[in-house]
Amino acid sequence: MRNVTDRTSNPFGIRPPFDRADPNDRTAVFGYGDANADFHVIGDYPGIHGGESTGVPFTETDSGTAIQSVLRDVGFASGPRDHPSLENCFASYVHMCSLPDGETPTANDYADLERFFDAELRAINAHILLPVGEHATDHVLREYTTQRHRFSLDMTRLHATDIRGRGFLVVPIKEPTTWDNGDREAILSRLLGLLASDYRQTKGVATTVG
């Protein structure tokens, strides 16, 4: 069994290149959870998926707490809502830095942080990537599969489906604030199905197919 590190927050000591956070917010919401995890949940940025006050991904906001609720039902998350304990699951953002209220990351902002996200993703080396929302899904499909050209970015159709990547299985998650009847149950069922399967074989298969 690999043991990357026992640190829960920012396990690899990443230092983002800029600080534009509001005075009471964290400079960045670093990757958090089990650094030896098989499942990696990937959000967009703190303003959408939360953590600007707690420093923990998928807290505070409606979207973030909806994702955390699914992780709890699967058995990945337990303990306090603002600082959960994650087992076999790691959570991080494509754009980890906090921005002033009302601002969204620009293309240059995403580009500035891409190498940090990529380094952490490859260090975690999970089997299953779970991008949340359109931007995270687009980024993961472009960078970690050879199949982005095959799909329109229709999150309703991609939600809770399996896409083979380059060494990963990608399971996109529709933005929780747009979930309709059945969307929560669909991703919960897919995760439970993966956990009941021999999902660790996806690495070899994905490398061959992707």
From TrEMBL:
Claim: DNA repair is one of the keywords in the record: yes
A Pfam short name: UDG
PANTHER family according to UniProt: TYPE-4 URACIL-DNA GLYCOSYLASE, TYPE-5 URACIL-DNA GLYCOSYLASE
GO terms for MF: 4 iron, 4 sulfur cluster binding; deaminated base DNA N-glycosylase activity; metal ion binding
Region (Disordered), start-end ranges: 1-20
Protein name as it appears in the record: Uracil-DNA glycosylase
Residue spans of biased composition, Polar residues class: 1-11
Keyword annotations from UniProtKB, A to Z: 4Fe-4S, DNA damage, DNA repair, Hydrolase, Iron, Iron-sulfur, Metal-binding
UniProt superkingdom: Archaea
Native source organism of the sequence: Natrinema halophilum
